[in-house]
Specification:
about 350 residues, alpha/beta, D-Maltodextrin-Binding Protein, domain 2, 12 helices, about 25% strand, flat, binds prephenic acid
Length: about 350
């Protein structure tokens, strides 16, 4: 950052001089903050470059030979800086990238376009981003209507301190994408869940192609853009980004293929009056333990909307149960159910509460 030339500022502060000083200060401030924002976007895990920028600006002011040196100018600076920063700081939302995975599409559907999207390389990294605070929210696929649960998300929920604060059911329409013709395809790449959702179509239409699992549908699209023998199973939006042809559309085996995503954040959702609550528990390994737990929900007349069993790694024969019911812990019957469940289970974690979302196409 070049030092501001003292010769450009007169010693007598007139309104004209002050206006000029303001403009110069603002220009320097903008330059610093913009550089800091760009650096932070490129390397979010690195030090707080915005803070570094503020310190640099303050030093600059302290060294300034202008008419308004000292605390008064520092105060003006601080105000300018904080206004700039407030405008620059968007809500950050992490998702399994690169751009235009279905997780990204779910994030756009839930948050709109005005947030800052943070693509990361795995579902585990989405949880990490929220836990470390590099993103306020994350989107993770929980379950699919054709293929069932998404193991990486359940694993993350069982270990993470992040809370579910929203749900996004998204219709999933897969396309076969590539740069060549259907006859050029030797390999079909996609996320295992996407390949599984299209397995009948693929074995019928491309029986000789090798099927290769990759980190995400959009990663497969990126690969297909570099090799005409590779086709990707991915979204139509991913085709546009990588300039791919849509070789076949809507290739999922079930026409009404839906994936339900969880929005994760640091705190659960507030009561809206039409909520669901998710939890994970381990019941004692003894006859009737699970039936006793189910009886709690029957007694409190709480409707269950989701249940999954999940083996506990390294503890053969022991299971975690994920469960979701209609209601919010601030309501009487859910509160009673949770208190009883606490007594009956070896471990209980309330994963969060969220407004019950409609499936909108
Ligand atoms: O790879 C993507 O596009 C994702 O967002 C992940 C994912 C998943 O794992 O379920 C999400 C939705 C579809 O079911 C297919 C893939």
């Amino acid at each position: 950052m070049p030092k501001k030339k003292s010769s450009s500022i007169e010693r007598v502060p007139t309104p004209k001089h002050l206006a000029k000083l303001d403009r110069e200060i603002l220009a320097l401030l903008n330059e610093r903050v913009e550089k800091a924002i760009a650096r932070k976007a490129a390397k979010p895990e690195e030090s707080d470059t915005l803070k570094d920028a503020r310190e640099a600006i303050e030093t600059l002011v302290a060294e300034s030979k202008g008419p308004l040196g000292g605390e008064a100018v520092q105060a003006v600076f601080r105000e300018l800086y904080s206004g700039q920063r407030a405008a620059a700081q968007k809500t950050r939302v992490a998702f399994l990238g690169p751009d235009f995975t279905f997780s990204h599409l779910a994030a756009i559907k839930h948050f709109g376009q005005s947030v800052e999207f943070v693509p990361v390389s795995s579902i585990a990294a989405v949880f990490e981003s929220v836990e470390r605070g590099t993103a306020e929210y994350g989107l993770v696929p929980l379950e699919n209507s054709t293929d069932g649960r998404v193991t990486d998300a359940l694993d993350g929920l069982s270990k993470s301190t992040a809370k579910i604060c929203g749900e996004v059911p998204l219709p999933i329409r897969h396309c076969l994408l590539g740069i060549g013709a259907r006859g050029d395809i030797r390999r079909v790449c996609s996320k295992p869940q996407a390949l599984s959702q299209c397995r009948n179509w693929l074995s019928k239409h491309l029986p000789e192609a090798e099927v290769t699992p990759v980190a995400s549908t959009a990663e497969a699209a990126r690969m297909a853009g570099a090799d005409r023998t590779i086709a990707a199973v991915a979204s139509a939006e991913a085709a546009a980004v990588h300039e791919l042809k849509v070789i076949a559309r809507s290739i999922q085996d079930q026409a009404d293929n839906v994936t339900r995503f969880a929005v994760i954040g640091v705190s659960p959702g507030e009561k809206t009056g039409n909520d669901k609550t998710a939890l994970v528990f381990e019941a004692p390994h003894e006859p009737g333990a699970l039936a006793d737990v189910m009886a709690i929900f029957k007694k409190q007349r709480l409707n269950l909307t989701w249940i999954e069993s999940f083996p506990i790694p390294g503890a053969r024969g022991r299971y975690l149960f994920f469960l979701e019911f209609q209601g919010h812990p601030s309501e009487l019957r859910p509160r009673r159910a949770l208190a009883s469940l606490e007594k009956k289970s070896l471990r209980l974690t309330v994963l969060g509460s969220y407004a019950q979302a409609e499936l909108i196409d």
